[in-house]
Structures are given as structure tokens and as C-alpha cells.
Amino acid sequence: MLAYTLRRLLLIIPTLLIILLVNFAIVQAAPGGPVEQAIARLQGIGGGGNLGGSSDGVGGNSRASRGLDPQLIKDIEKQYGFDKPAHERLWLMLKSYAQLDFGKSFFRGATVTELILQKMPVTLSLGLWATLITYLVSIPLGIRKAVHHGSHFDIWSSTAIIIGYAMPAFLFAMFLIVMFAGGTSLNWFPVRGLVSENFEQLSTLGKVVDYFWHLVLPVTSLVIGGFATLTILTKNSFLNEITRQYVVTARAKGLSERRVLYGHVFRNAMLLVIAGIPTALIEVFFAGSLLIETLFNLDGLGRMSYEAAVSRDYPVVFGALFLFTLFGLLIKLIGDLCYSLVDPRIDFSARTA
Q: Would the CA dihedral through 106, 107, 108, 110 be positive or negative?
């Protein structure tokens, strides 16, 4: 297992390198680079996202640069590093990333590391609590549905689960905002920020209550989709295992239903559930974070990455991409390790990759 873990950790390096190379090549062809963005601001256009030209620099022939001193344009290109050819900029970026130096934001006046650390608490709060609640509710519910398959409880809970699965997270978030955040007569929860403005003046207990009070609606919105998927997955996994011969044999030996369920079925059925942990975590942290952070005015990594992409703030874009990719690869590795914890019969050390 140790050898397999080391191999997977080493494979992270070329995987990150390939992803960075592909995305670096893509942004070179994207119009409206940071130089054009800066020139557009100087001319009062309001943004360079739709301007012609590529991100390699604008030079004196771009529509955005007409009427400006060519020396000023060269100074702007030098400021953002676009006075160098693409391969040299790529080499400098990779060299800095090897030292965990992600550079400085073009437009935010802070280093990428500082920005990520500032936004990280919001995204971690949403992702960790949403994932924890999803698993704490979905697994027991899925087991109960499997044990009582076909009962009234199974039928009405399946109806609720299907509705939750069919409803997009952002639509459910809008429903919660309308119902419980001032859209009706009920104004129970805030829809702005992770904490209140007077957070520092609150007592310790008050800070805890205020923190969770702000998380209720966004976390509930994130949970709804993953909750439905995981519950159905858990139920089907247990139903599949309950019908196997070893369960019939265990019951014939006189073992209690609880012993059969949690002593024998649980370990085998949870393998499929654990296999979905990496995907579930990645979806909660990254796929749904942008819309939820936007709807609830939360300044997290998803929103920061989107705004950086729109403004062509490449150091922030690549820094966030590096972090997201690294996190996703580590989560997948942890998912494989969880396999062996649930079922020691699985031996990844026999694998060659």
C-alpha cells in the first residue's frame, strides 16, 4: 500500500504539468488578454473581454490600442510579463510553481497565495459541511430504505429524493431565498456573507451561532443534489448485497438482523459508496460552489476564479487551477485508500500504476 501511495503521489506531478500546459496553450488563443484589459480601462471602454487580438500582447495594431503611445503599450506589456515570448513565460511560471510561488494578481493588488487563503474559508465551510451532512443523512437513510424496500416509507421518501435530484442546486437556492430570506413574510436567514458585520463584537457562543446561521441556506442548497444521488446509491448497494448467498447463510446460522446488516453487508455495500466520495467532494467543492457563492454573496474560491477568468487575471486563474487539480487528485487517492480501510482484502500494491 505504501508503494502504491508513493507512485500515485509521484504521478500527481506530471498530471499537474500536463493540465497546466494544456490550459496555458488555450489562454494564448483567447482574445482580450490582460494587456488589452488594461488598455481598455485606460481608454474607459470598461473591459477587454470582447476586444480583438490574443493574450500574447496587443502591439500597435490592436483596435484597443489605437491612439495610445506605443511606448506606453510596451510598458503595459512589460508590467504583465507579455514582453517575453510564450515559451519563456511558460518556463518562468513552471519554475515559480515548483517553488509554490503562484505570482501576484494583475488587478487585485495581492499575491495569489494571499487571495486563495482569504477565499479558502468560505469554500471549505460550504464544501465540508455540505459533504458531512450529505453522508450523515444519506447513508442511514439509504440503509433504512433498503431494509424496508417497497414500504410506504420507501415510496414517499423516494418521491422526495427524486424531486430533490431533479431540482438544480441554484434553483433550490433561489426558492430558499424567496421563502426564508425576505422574499415572503419570513426573513429568518441572511443571504450575504459568511458572518455578520458585528461578528467580532459577539461572544464565542454568539460567533458560533452566527456562523452556522449564515450557512443554513447555502449548505442546504448544496446538499439537495448530492443527498439524492448518495441515498439512491446506498440503497441499491445494500439491496444488491442483501440478496447474496452469504447473507442467506448468515441468517440461517441464527445471526441477528443487525449483525448480518452491519457485520457483513455493510462492509461490502459501502465499497460502491466510497467509490463515489471523490466525485461527490469535487462536485460539492467546485461544480456547485460558483452559483451558490454568487447567489448568497459569498466571496469564495469559485467566485474568485470566475471573476479572474472574466478579467483575464491569469496568475489567479492558473493558481486556482493548480489548487483545484491538486485537491481533486489527492481526493481520488484518499478514496482509493478508503477502499482498503473498509475492505482489507483489496490490495492496491499489486497494481502497477
A: positive
More reliable by pLDDT, 196 or 40: 196
Whether 71 and 79 have beta carbons less than 8 Å apart is answered as no
Read off φ and ψ for residue 4, nearest 5 degrees: -65, -40
Cα separation, 93 vs 330, in Å, equals 22
| CA dist., res. 56 & res. 32, Å (int) | 10
- Which secondary structure element, helix H or strand E, spans residue 44, and what is its range? none
Predicted confidence band of residue 54 (pLDDT cuts 50, 70, 90): very low
Report yes or no: 323 and 116 within 8 Å, Cβ to Cβ.
Answer: yes
DSSP assignment, residue 240? H
pLDDT tens-digit series, residues 273-303: 776 666 666 666 665 567 788 888 888 888 8
Q: Which residues are CB-contacts of 253 (< 8 A; sequence separation ≥ 6)? A: none
Measure the N-to-C terminal CA separation of the chain; round to a whole number of Å: 12
**pLDDT, tens digit (0-9, with 9 covering 90-100), for 170-216:** 788 888 888 888 777 778 888 887 888 888 888 889 888 988 998 88
Report the range out of 25-29, 145-149, 285-289 with the highest average pLDDT: 145-149
Burial class (CB within 10 angstroms; exposed 0-12, middle 13-18, buried 19+) of 215? buried
User: What is d(CA 327, CA 311) in angstroms, rounded to the nearest whole number?
Assistant: 24
Give the pLDDT score at 11.
86
Cβ neighbours of residue 126 closer than 8 Å, sequence gap 6 or more:
215, 218, 219, 222, 284, 285, 289, 292, 293, 298, 300
Helix then strand then coil, % of the chain, to nearest 5 = 70, 0, 25
Give the integer Cα–Cα distance in Å for 146 and 155: 11
* Spatial contact of 227 and 248, defined as CB atoms under 8 Å apart: no
Taking 80 as the threshold, does the pLDDT of residue 135 lie above it? yes
Residue 265 carries which DSSP code? I
Q: In terms of C-beta density within 10 A (0-12 exposed, 13-18 middle, 19 or more buried), how is residue 350 classed?
A: exposed
Give the residue, 100 or 286, on which the prediction is more confident: 100
